[in-house]
Amino acid sequence: MLITNATLPDGRTGIDLLVQQQHITAVGPQLGAPEGTEVIDARGWLLAPPFVDAHFHMDATLSHGLPRVNASGTLLEGIALWGELKPLLTQEALVERALRYCDWAVAQGLLAIRSHVDVCDDRLLAVEALLQVKRQVAPYLQLQLVAFPQDGLLRSPDAMAKLQRALDMGVDVVGGIPHFERTMAEGAESVRLLCELAAERGLPVDMHCDESDDPLSRHIETLAFQAQRLGLHGRCTGSHLTSMHSMDNYYVSKLLPLMAEAGVNAVANPLINITLQGRHDHYPKRRGMTRVPELMAAGITVGFGHDCVLDPWYAFGSGDMLEVAAMGLHVAQMTSLQGQRQCFDAVTVNNARILGLQGYGLEPGCRADFVLLQARSPAEALRLRAARLLVVGQGRVLARAPERCVALDLPGRPATVDFTLP
Ligand code: FE2
Description:
The chain has helices spanning 75-85, 91-107, 125-137, 159-169, 184-201, 219-229, 243-246, 249-262, 270-276, 292-297, 321-331, 337-345, 349-355, 378-384; strands at 2-6, 15-20, 23-28, 39-41, 46-48, 51-57, 110-118, 142-148, 173-174, 205-209, 236-240, 265-268, 302-304, 370-373, 388-393, 396-400, 406-407, 416-417. The chain is α/β, with parallel strands linked by helices. It has a 4-stranded mixed sheet with strand order 3-2-1-4, with no helix packed on it. Strands 5-14-15-16 form a 4-stranded antiparallel sheet, with no helix packed on it. The longest helix has 18 residues, at 184-201.
């Protein structure tokens, strides 16, 4: 396959990209191609590496309204609601909903997802279901699973044993939820136990960490400490970190260098953070998302996750990582040119680094995974939630869509309009 006349996220234009045997073999202007090569004209549109989601819950997705909706809109009612739904789940329905979401993801150019899977269930039904889905979608979507003790590692009976069983079955990453344990001390203890388990097994860690408006929820400090102590540099991720929004500024000025030193990654979930945090506030209401630009400035890898789509916590979403990035940009006020580019990176290269994806990017030698966006730049893609014209995975076209264009009937004006700028 030869893609011609593409614009790349770094601003290069008129670029061709040659794909051979599932890999990118050449990138540059006016490349030739062997006879019989399929040629696709990118018409100057933006060719980007695929979107990556660093934080999702594929066991809960598309279950909105089962068995009822979240009336208060809070995180805690969402957890209670998920607890009501769990005994009613069937493997068949879990697999069907997850596969449908993966279809949406591919159509949106989202080709790698790290999903948490709840292990606080004697049957480990969701674990079995998502392992099956992972195998099934492997030819076109990289699904990474995190063993997530939703009801608390120490708070929920036998959660450690279930979590270990899930890892034995093939789940890839150690999860946690320290702010949901009964006390701060138990939260810290859970972080220690889980990091030691990850070190023993040679696995990464990705915890729901400090998803709270409580400025004294400081489990990220413990996670950074344990990552440093156990040599887990680059392998630990703190997801959410919303309490950091409310923390004392002096304390944060000490915390950020500790996180950078320990190589702990951070994941914000803009759509979910802006809707779930600040629910106990009157006015002014806190935004609650973690300190994204400050974390980035400290040299920490920061990704954005979708977290939820149509589930007990969030009644919206469609697997569109441009929507996630655009919300992150607004909430964090990252409106500068640099900030816009950083938000695009937060749903592409940064998430790829957090997931540890091999061969990600648009360089020769990388996997032939990419998405053609109806935009001229990453900033325009964010502004328009650009149409995904072409999605390619390992050199195969996975999805195609027509250019978005509206017929106009105005005297003296053009016959069609799109929303891009020349
Ligand atoms: Fe989550």
